[in-house]
Amino acid sequence: MITVKLIELGSEVKEYGMEDGSTVGDLLRIAHKSYVHGCVTRNNAEVSSGATLRNNDRIFVGKAMKGNTDPFEVTFVRLGDTSISLGCADGQSIKQVLEQLEDGEQRRKFFREDGTVAYEFRVGQMGQPVNENYVLNRPNSGSVRVICSQRVKGNFRHFRK
């Protein structure tokens, strides 16, 4: 048994348990996705639907358009709660990535009733605080990790553009 992640721009990253010898096509069938030549990569390298999956592979499903770039994984970590991973494209802001959440319960964890973001963010392990307009870029390897701190009086810093 192997574990792979399916990452698609605009949706939550999903993890699948697959049998040894499974192919990219098998994964896409299980996920109800279509294989489009040139839009599917494994660990940032284009791959065919017949390619055999390996443990911990990250399969990226992009969109067929000019200038297409593969999404990458962004993991949002909130103290005392489970983390959530989403697909992100180069140049998207933290808020744009979070706005992809379709599940109402998940959205309520990040946004207030008036639509404002409820957190202050830190990118990476020891990053400086950034606001929701901070632009995320593809990491050299792995995923981007965003730490979410609740905005309460005394810990929120005002940002200027």
Order of helices and strands: EEHEEEEEHHEEE
What are the low-pLDDT stretches, counting only 5+ consecutive residues below 50?
none
Using only C-alpha atoms, the radius of gyration works out to 17 Å
Shape verdict:
elongated
- Cα-to-Cα separation, first versus last residue: 49 Å
**Any idea of the CATH class of the largest domain?**
Alpha Beta
Average predicted confidence as pLDDT: 80
Order of strands across the main sheet: 2-1-5-3-4
CATH superfamily of the largest domain: Beta-grasp domain
Number of domains: 2
* Portion in strands: 25-35%
Structure in a nutshell:
The chain is of the alpha+beta class.
List the helices and strands and how they pair.
Elements: E1 2-8, E2 14-18, H1 24-30, E3 40-42, E4 45-46, E5 58-61, E6 72-78, E7 84-88, H2 94-98, H3 104-110, E8 119-123, E9 129-130, E10 144-150
Question: Could you explain how this protein is built, in words?
Answer:
There is one protein chain. With 161 residues, the protein is an alpha+beta fold. It folds into 2 domains: 2-61, Beta-grasp domain (Ubiquitin-like (UB roll), Roll); 72-150, Ubiquitin-like (UB roll). Helices cover 12% and strands 29% of the residues. It contains 3 helices and 10 strands. It has a 5-stranded mixed beta sheet, with no helix packed on it. It is elongated, with a radius of gyration of 17 Å. It starts with a strand and ends in an 11-residue tail after the last strand.
